[in-house]
Amino acid sequence: MSEASRSFATAQVQAGYVPGTAENTVIPPIHQSNAFEFDSLSEARDLFALRREGNIYSRTANPTVLVFEHRVAELENGISAAAVASGQAAVALALLALAKQGEHIVAARQLYGGSIDLLQDTFADWGIEVTFVDQDDRQGWTSAVRPTTRALFAESITNPNAQVLDVRAVADVARAARVPLVIDHTIATPYLQHVKDFGADIVVHSATKYLGGHGTSLGGVIVDLGTFDFAAEPDRWPQLTETYRRVPGGSLLERFGPTGSPFIALVKTKYVHDLGPSLSAFNAFQLLQGLETLDLRMARHSTSGQLVAQFLEEHPAVSRVNHPGLASSPWHDLAREYLPRGAASVFSFEVHATGDADTDFARIEELIARLKVIRLVANIGDARSLVAHPASMTHSHLTTAQRAEAGITPTTIRLSIGLEDPADLIADLGHALAPLADRVRPGIVTLEG
């Protein structure tokens, strides 16, 4: 049918665009399409059988999302990546691709509260057992390993207390257990640390945070670093080494092992495909804009975070600052080893406790209300500086004992230092803390009421 003979209804749907037309844009375009046209039925058959690469449906692959995946994989020195709808989805899918019902994961007890909720509640519902250990206790990691263990999981820098993981030590335990070490690398990012250099095998990010950096778009990403040999013990990894029903005539290892990542292929073709936590093309585009300035932003975040931490450590209303860049931190030596470009800009501090929970909460609420530059937001890694109270917000679902084990007290306050002038942030905190300082005398904390 020629354009001249097309009806109005046909023209309004199809005019002006030829599928497959390439444009010479310098910026990766937003491919805002839920599906893609095939050249032939034979091509469609090959694509669905994973015999060739190409676009089928944006739930599992989209050209804009692929650019984001390739870029993050290269920044992490990995071999392949899967982008998903959020950081929580990245954690869930990475671990689900490794452990199934009746199997086991060892995880750090200092994880972000949402990750602990996922592992101790939802994974338990699915028959996957999780043992939580102190991330600094190497023997604890070793003792927790079972024959059914399929992954070790920790954060390279913890949220909220900025504890620095001894990645090499935990990687050694994972190697001895013959399982992958999965690292949540959200706070450190690949700019501050390459965990692959220290033995990590798989990385997950909440791209919502520093990778994007602008607080507008949710996203997550899983990166296969290419360091774990799933073929060494094929019986332990049947999902990768046995015939895969979605790849006629072979396994994912046979199909993708020589040229790509069987693990990422499993994440995409099974878990993203079946569960649907897809990253939209628009969000991928937004996250790509953030990635372009990651090194500049992380340098500023880290420098400002150090200055704010030093100010807080000297303030009389503050009883403790949890920042690995401070010489007083138990993780200072690890920060010097693992984070030569700068330490965390997400960290916490504590004000002096009165001993009464209601009084302490009221004082912290008043302190936060006095802040004018730093915003009360349940997020981190934003261009804006943010504050949160973990015990009543991000870690409120944990038991009192779990919070204590993770180093979170009723007076712990989390900061995420943004890109504002650090002098303004220090002045803002000084103003908010001043009334508390007036109530503190050397060696004595005055009780209100």
Kindly list the characteristics that best describe this protein.
single chain; 449 residues; alpha/beta; seven-stranded mixed sheet; five-stranded mixed sheet; 14 strands; 14% strand
In short:
With 449 residues, the protein is α/β, with parallel strands linked by helices.
Outline the structure in words:
- The chain has helices at 8-14, 41-48, 63-75, 87-96, 113-125, 138-144, 167-177, 189-192, 238-241, 252-256, 262-275, 281-291, 294-313, 332-338, 357-370, 400-405, 422-438; strands spanning 80-84, 104-108, 129-133, 149-155, 181-184, 202-206, 220-224, 318-322, 346-351, 375-376, 386-388, 412-416, 440-441, 444-445.
- By secondary structure, it is an alpha/beta fold.
- The strands form three sheets. Strands 1-7-6-5-4-2-3 form a seven-stranded mixed β-sheet, sandwiched between helices.
- Mean pLDDT is 93; it is low at 441-449.
